[in-house]
Design goal:
alpha+beta, Alpha-Beta Plaits, 4-stranded antiparallel β-sheet, 70% helix, 8% strand, elongated
Length: 302
Amino acid sequence: MNWSSFKYLARQGLQSMVRNRLMSVASIGVLTVCLIITGVAALFTLNINSLMDYLGSQNEAVVYLQDDLSDEGLAQVDGALRSISGLRDVIYVTKEEALDNMKESMEDKAYLWDAFEGSDNPFAATYRVILDDVAMMPEIEPQLTAIPGVEEVMAPVQMAELFTSIHRAVTLVSMILVTVLGFVSIVVISNTIRLTVFARRKEINIMKYVGATNGFVRLPFFVEGVAAGLIAGAVSSALVLGGYQLLVMYAGDLPGFWGGMAANVLLPLAKLWYKVLPAFLAFGGVIGSVGTATSIRKYLKV
């Protein structure tokens, strides 16, 4: 097929969309709804993963040192901590720094701690250890406890185990949800396009009887399917991204804990739109073309 024939058939496909606008609107509408549902599920999955990553970033344990620890013992503890694999950072906090941190957290009541300056300081020197992965907490906590000179280790082991289990479950459920919705979208839009092709079966038969090749018959329908998919992709992406932007804007205004959580967890639109838009357009175009190709096949046998 030469270029002029291709342009002619592509133009015929686009003109056919206008002539059969009722069925075209139906196909675009159904595909738009399917894409919106799938897109919402995908954005939900991305933000659930963002929430899991945020919770996983709370991967800190506190190592309390013995009060009578000498400088040599402190150096040994420091070396032992830094030799443990899986630790991202090791931060030493003196007794004085711990007291100052408490004063800062008390704000207007900070003066109550002035009496504990000097030798009356009740706080112990500590190390803050930050893990590369919170899932390693159950493995690393015993290693911290076994270091000579360590009095106690405060590590959220149970929370780490719970987080790991939840993260695995959420990831699995999210993948299943998006896959099922994507499959349902393919089935629904294929059936809708099949109705469109069925309504024009006589037109296909006439073209075949006058000697048109399968490719000549298919191409206009293929162009229709791709065009409908691209239109649906553009409309659905605009609706989904617009709604998501409103969600991000208003969620950030929530008071207290929920506002702070939304600010830390919800992915900004700037990090999503350039991924979502091409995905919607590609998915819409592919589904439209595949649905058309599979629906027209049996009407080519005359």
